[in-house]
Specification:
The protein has four helices and 27 strands. With about 400 residues, the protein is mainly β. Among the domains are: about 1-95, no CATH class; about 140-255, no CATH class. A hairpin with a 2-residue loop joins strand 4 and strand 5. Helix 1 (about 1-10) runs antiparallel to helix 2.
Amino acid sequence: MVTWAEQQYALRFPGSDLDARDSVRALLESWHLQPAYINSWPRDALEDIPFLSPPGAFQLGRYIAEQGDLIDPLEWGAIPLDSMERRAMQSFFQVGYPAREGVHSPRPWQGGISRTSSGWGPYVLGPGLRWTQQQSLSVLPWRVAWSPGNGPFLRSQASDSFFAWSPQRGGWGRFASTPNMHLGGGWIDNQWLLTISLGQPRWKWQGMLHGGNRWTSSCLLRCPSGMTAEWTQRSRDWALTAAWLPQPISPGWRLRLPYARGWLEAGNRPAHQWMRWQGRSAGGGLDRWNQQWRLNASLFLTPDLEAWVFVGCSPDTPHAWGWRYISSEDAPPFRFTVGWMGAGETYGYGTSPLRMTAPGPYFEGQWRPTWVAFGIEHQGLLTIKIRPTGFLWSGRYTFQSAQKWG
């Protein structure tokens, strides 16, 4: 495919010299190894794609103008391109968007106090530091919990390492031995633990063995078409909770397929089975929580307003509905969610973004005022939650000075 694309470039630009063709070939070879993102290409420069003819660039631009950015690999088939041009676009470009790198400007220091229904508390944020609860302190990548209960007293998680330890139960760690392999082990609950993780851009597998009779195994597969498959299995007496693991382990499987500029998903977990479809502005599906079936649907009425509804499939399954509003950058800084859940058997894991678990009305609201006075930026946060079981509120005030120290 690289040779064909280079030949197309030579036909389009017969006056190009050998240096230009070598540069184009090097670019095509890099795209063949790591496809570029078509959505990152300038819309007014599609004709600059080396192998794409002017009619093909016109058809591609017309499709993007009418349908928006390409997010489904199957959309290549909907664009009226030459068969070889379509194969080249599929080989050298991918749809979607590149993952955002976690590169941000250093967090400025913020200090203040917070007030909740349970009392006063500290609020200190800085580069790598977070102290917003009296019971825990975070200094990246470490977190110290003064009263951890059955969880770890000391916990650290980074992209290539993990560590958890408590005086009562012991601890374990995992580190990267190679870019594609992580090895780890430790001593927890008077038993040894071993773990290994292998990964490539298209697949990942992880296994853990605890004490010789407790184990977990999980694998993840990503296909070029956009399909994602995930499978996890563990022994019945597995005892480590999510606080002791880099990621929670829930046995079952999940399959996601791209469809109609969205995706289709089916999955099976111990207490949850589901089938869903999600598009850009609407979604729906059928799911089952603790032997209770229900239909659900969601719709973005505006970019700031979302509505959803849950309809039970039996008289014992409660219905529920809700609205969520998130203000834009130019609107007043507040957001709120309102909902209602009917009578019936209580869902053990909650329903909807409001986490409804009992019949009755629900409300969650946030207000984030910001103002500047005496050269200092002041920030506030007021949160109110009203549920059938009670009322909860919290408040926070912080200030930030733009002055440099020293």
